Amino acid sequence: MRALAAVEDPELPVSIVDLGMVRAVTVRGSRAVVELVPTFLACPALWMVESEVRRSVTALPGVAECEVAWRAGGWSGADVTEAGRRALAGAGLAAPAAGGEVACPFCGSPDVRPASPFGSAVCRSAAYCDRCRTPFEVLKDKRSTGGAAPVSGAPDVPAPVGPPAGGHPAP
Amino acid sequence: MRPASAVAEAADGDLEPTLTWLADDELLTGHVLTSVAGWGPELEINVAMSSMGQDEIGHARRLYGLFADAGQAERLVYERPAAAFRAGLLARTYPREWELLLARQYLFETAADARAAVLARATAAGVAALMAEMAHEERYHLDFWRTWLATTSRRSDAARARVQRALDRMWPLAAASFLPERPGAAERALGLPEGALSRARREWASAEREACQRLGLSLCDGPPEAGADQLGAMLDEMRDVYQTAPGSW
Q: How far is A157 from chain B (nearest CA, A)?
């Protein structure tokens, strides 16, 4: 596990162990099998994680081979450990607690509200702290997607501003 | 990347075409969303479309991965003839207007959600777990498009009229796309009860008619419009860079 704790997510300043991605490790003789769960299926960094896990584990004495097996799913932002939360907070990211509660990573206030269910990566949503008035991102819970957070600007939708397509009458 | 419980070989001849159908739908939808991200009414909507498009492409890769290794999946995307694609009519549309995209995506996501509830009970190895996880992730998509369908159609009578015209065009395509080419064969290959997908389609159509009615909208049956298939244009865009040096990527 120490070897796996040295493997960080390529996009987040936290180990894959603290991120909750490592689900099982089996060693038989000189062969290790590490079972991982992806954060999100479309995460573009998963192949890097796999590569780093193999490199890190096969560097251990007595381990000649490492297979990485991916579970189909089961991860949630709430799986991040306490150490992981602290590391993420240092980078301005929040991870939800087991009950889905989110605290501002800057001031610690629970007085936050969702800004958008979509952030700068597939695993992140956007939020805003009403106490220190700072926007921040949250690792998606994914296991409790009850209702969409309002996207800024709703419900007054301005007229489309994309390339002209025959024109639309003004609402 | 090999899944923990991959379908190593599609022993059943109908399983691979069924999985290809599901994957092709996701791939084309991902291409549409990532291509039109930037044309939405406001910045956050464009961020959302980009994110959802990435999800869809990732889901396509996982579905192809149930029967193909990484190299084979790349060739399926970049080298397969257009005639070999199995995506439904709705996934082949390529709207460049907000209301058309809204109608397309609303119908696509509600249909995918309805199918996922059935596919999560498939006994073919690897399928149920993957479909269940996809449903967790696409719940964010579903909520987004439901919110915007309601928001846009409630804004004004003119806005509702535009949404209605978009639904008039997209609904026949969506209705024709819910089922695979041979539903019975697909159900057997997936290990589903006979008629499960057809029942899901009827329930989805009924539920969506009610949901649209509450917004003052209607879903009118009719033949799919001719010329809606934009697969060729999508593949040209998708393969533009690849074609500069095939086999080098």
A: 7
**Which amino acid, one-letter code, is at A14?**
V
Range with the lowest mean pLDDT among A14-23, A97-106, A159-168, B21-30?
A159-168
Class of domain B4-244: mainly alpha
* Residues ≥6 apart with Cβ < 8 Å to B159: A157, A171, B152, B153
**pLDDT score recorded for residue B9:** 43
List the single residue in A41, A151, A160 with the smallest CB-CB distance to B48. Answer: A151
B-facing residues of A in 61-80 (CB < 8 A) are: 68-74
The alpha-carbon gap from B222 to the nearest alpha carbon of chain A, in Å, equals 25
Spell out which residues of chain A touch residue B5, defining contact as CB-CB under 8 Å.
Answer: 72
Q: Distance between CA atoms of B1 and B94, rounded to whole angstroms?
A: 30
What pTM, to 2 d.p., does this model score? 0.88
**Which of the two residues, A158 and B120, has the higher pLDDT score?**
B120
Q: Which of A148, A5, A3, A158 is nearest to A81 (CA)?
A: A5
ipTM: 0.86
DSSP-derived secondary structure letter, B25? H
Instruction: Name the pLDDT band for A161 (thresholds 50, 70, 90).
Output: very low
Contact between B47 and A74 using a beta-carbon 8 Å cutoff: no
Longest dimension (CA), chain B: 54
Chain A contact for B158 (CB, 8 A cutoff): yes
- For every residue of B181-211, DSSP letters joined together read SSHHHHHHHHTPPTTHHHHHHHHHHHHHHHH
- CB of B98 within 8 Å of a chain A CB? The answer is yes
CB A61 within 8 A of CB B82: no
Q: Is the pLDDT of residue A158 over 90?
A: no
Distance from CA of B137 to the nearest CA of A (A): 6
Which amino acid belongs to residue A117?
P
Report the phi/psi class of residue B159: left, alpha or beta, with left for phi > 0 and alpha for psi in -120 to 50. Answer: alpha
Q: Considering only alpha carbons, which residue of chain A is nearest residue B158?
A: A171
Give domain limits for chain B. Answer: 4-244
Per-residue pLDDT at A151: 41
Q: Give mean pLDDT, residues B160-165.
A: 97
